[in-house]
Specification:
Cytochrome P450; metal-binding; Cyt_P450; monooxygenase; alpha+beta; 51% helix; 4-stranded mixed β-sheet
């Protein structure tokens, strides 16, 4: 009996080891298993999921390689969070148009609710729909009365200042911040009925914090998915406190400009979007105005600014395209100020814009979608609560659709005569479906007027003796080119 007890005591460490092994095995198995029926993807690592699969300096190439290996629909885990990626025009169209009622939601996970305060871009349900419709109608009434004369006036007022600035530059110049400020001023004017002052330091501060805040959100989101217990630790490891402080400072800034408009606007006026927000029929409450304002300022300015930053780079790298563009503008418009009605008369301008939107792909992964229930899609299961991302760049850089996809060839969008713009449904920089960009029409008009006026007045060249710029992109609020310099010459 005593010997048996001694033997059992001797075996206890082995039993403990076995239990530890089993528990460890189960934890690893549970944290690395891929849910049955979901789209294919690489093997999953403990804690980090598939983050290792995204290693590499060129993230869009990484996604191209993943598509080549796993197909148009594949799934990755960010920590424990499942994300499904849609690639190619057909897959994106099937989801956002044919099955739009399943894919038209925004993420509702805990992190998104705590970090994101906006409900114009990230909201769901009937309230979001009523706000979107109201703002689209407001844009129509503000910008497109008298065949768009108001929008033209706002844009040309800003372009007068921009061209005056560009023609005075004598040294190699990086256009990114100047273009961001210019387009942001246009959006500010639509929202407030006037442009910001030229040296408004608070406005410049706001633009700077928006881009930094987006960078921070992306990195904090990844940390949350991999280490959800970070927010239980001392400090601000997920930068949630910083995000709240930044939001509070933005609220203070917007309150200043709101009160100024309230004090000066005539009762019942509807000359700018803020007037609409303050109207009795507005679905946006007084406390929510700054949230919608923040969305519209960020999304409405930076995407167009990034497009123009890409375009200046492409024109400097392709002087033959720039010469042809200037010749077409001169032939149709001369030195007159272009109007919206000129768009149909200069198809080459539209072709250059389309080609820039295609290659630049300034929001390559769009804004995340979300499914609220299990969805069967192309033979796969997309479980309830999954984030869905449309890789828009996969349509723009698809060699089966666009021959030599990274060559800048605006002519691909024109007929043989070069005078008729061809359908371009597979260029979808503003996404598609219920969640497509609500400012698309304004953005396209802005780009036409900016490109035409700028090329009328200045020419871009690569600085002599400088290293040739690359076409590498940088992820931020948008996907922009690496900073580069160009020489600017005033045209006669």
């Amino acid at each position: 009996m005593f010997a048996a007890s001694i033997l059992n005591l001797h075996l206890l460490p082995d039993v403990t080891s076995v239990l530890v092994f089993i528990v460890t095995f189960l934890l690893i198995y549970w944290s690395t298993r891929r849910h049955p029926g979901i789209p294919p993807g690489p093997g999953r690592w403990p804690i980090i999921g598939n983050l290792g699969s995204l290693a590499g300096p060129d993230k869009l190439k990484v996604f191209r390689d993943l598509r080549r290996k796993y197909g148009d629909v594949f799934a990755l885990y960010f920590g424990s969070e499942l994300t499904v990626f849609l690639n190619g025009y057909d897959a994106i169209k099937d989801a956002f148009l044919k099955q739009g009622r399943h894919f038209s939601f925004r993420p509702e996970n805990d992190f998104a609710k705590r970090y994101i305060v906006s409900d114009l871009v990230f909201g769901n349900g009937s309230e979001w729909k009523s706000k979107r419709l109201y703002i689209m109608n407001a844009f129509r009434d503000i910008c497109f009365t008298r065949n768009g004369a108001v929008l033209e006036q706002i844009v040309h007022e800003e372009l007068d200042l921009l061209i005056e600035h560009l023609t005075q530059i004598k040294e190699p110049f990086c256009p990114r911040k100047t273009m961001s400020l210019s387009f942001a001023s246009v959006v500010f004017n639509i929202l407030h009925g006037k442009r910001p002052e030229r040296d408004d330091k608070r406005f410049l501060w706001y633009l700077d914090t928006v881009d930094k805040g987006f960078h921070m959100f992306l990195s904090s989101q990844v940390r949350h998915y991999c280490f959800p217990w970070f927010d239980k630790l001392p400090g601000d490891l997920l930068r949630l406190r910083y995000a709240r402080d930044m939001s509070a400072s933005h609220i203070d800034y917007f309150e200043e400009v709101f009160k100024e408009r309230e004090a000066t606007a005539l009762k019942g006026s509807r000359d700018c979007l803020l007037d609409f927000f303050l109207s009795e029929d507005s679905p946006v409450t007084r406390d929510e105005i700054w949230k919608c304002h923040e969305d519209l300022m960020a999304a409405g300015s930076e995407t167009s600014a990034t497009t123009l930053t890409w375009m200046i780079l492409f024109l400097a790298l392709n002087p033959d395209v720039q010469d042809k563009l200037h010749a077409e503008i001169t032939r149709k418009v001369g030195k007159e100020v272009p109007t919206i009605s000129d768009r149909s008369e200069i198809p080459y301008v539209e072709a250059v814009i389309l080609e820039t939107l295609r290659i630049g792909s300034n929001v390559p992964l769009g804004v995340p979608h979300f499914v609220k229930e299990d969805v069967s899609f192309r033979g796969f299961l997309i479980p309830k609560g999954t984030t869905v991302i449309a890789n828009l760049s996969s349509t723009h850089h698809d060699s089966s659709v666009f021959h030599d996809p990274f060559a800048f060839r605006p002519e691909r969008f024109l007929d043989e005569s070069g005078r008729v713009l061809q359908p371009s449904e597979q260029v979808i920089p503003f996404s598609m479906g219920q969640r497509s960009c609500l400012g698309e029409t304004i953005a396209r008009i802005e780009l036409f007027l900016y490109v035409t006026r700028i090329v009328q007045n200045v020419q871009f060249k690569l600085p002599a003796g400088c290293k040739r710029p690359t076409l590498n992109g940088v992820f931020g609020l948008t996907y922009r080119p690496e900073d580069y310099n160009v020489d600017i010459e005033k045209r006669n």
